[in-house]
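call fold(seq) -> tokens
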Amino acid sequence: MDDVWVIFNPYANRWRAREQWPRVEKVLRDAGLRFTVKRCETRGDPIRWAAEGARKGIPMLVAAGGDGTVGEVVNGMAQVLGYDAARWPILGLLPLGSANDLVANLGLPGDPVEAARLLVMGKPRPMDVLQVNEWAFVNNAALGMEPRVTLTEKRIQRVHGVLRYVLAAFWVLARPQHWRVRMTWDDGAYEGMATLISVGNWPRTGGIFYPTPHAQGFDGRLTFLYGYIPSSFQVLRLLLQAMGPEGRHVDHPGVHEIHATRLEVHCEPPSPMHADGEIRTEGGTYFAFRTWPGRVPVMLPEEEDAPS
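ret:
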């Protein structure tokens, strides 16, 4: 039986993953890793391959692609195994996407060749998995402004990498939108207007944005940020502050960052929602978030402490 399935998404980073793959595959073979490549050809293939690997009891499933590929691999595991921590395969990461936020949040190598070596030399550590409605995610999800940026970024064709996210953010900023929301969590509630709601397992998303700067994916909690900022100028200022890990934007009186184990959101009008960089709906009115502590073992450097 194979020890590892590498679920390879050649489309990641607008087909640039395909160009990087031969040297990554060579490193894996030179290291003596026993693996089979499961190439993704159609939409949803990472979910299907991960589900099949989970059913077959493959010990490690490697997401070779971007954050969207990682999210789909995790959902393939969840669909077959549920959220039983003892039964999940190890999650390996080969960063071949444009932002590779989860890899950065975990402090892992951004070079896929270095990351490939880690699959042989690393040690698994149980990481939290978050869930929104029926979808699992491991980095972040959001309503309101943030998924509007994601929708816009997907339509930009001639610009690549992190710059796409920046251009999309400024385009959305020029066309502000707000939502009336009713939110409840472990020991609190809010009802009123909101410009954005971001739910993080980790701080960084979109390559350079840190909407939930104090999120920590090994603490058994989700971290969410919500805020109502009616002024486009103030939103621009907060956006610029959110481009650094210092998290100065959470000091704004209209912004709140909270740690919890669950969150429910009702919103009007319908809001788009993304999870791990992929749009899950372009218009929803009810979203239920929860955390599953320590559900997926993720491969880290053997000497690595918890990222902070």
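The two ends are 37 Å apart (CA to CA).
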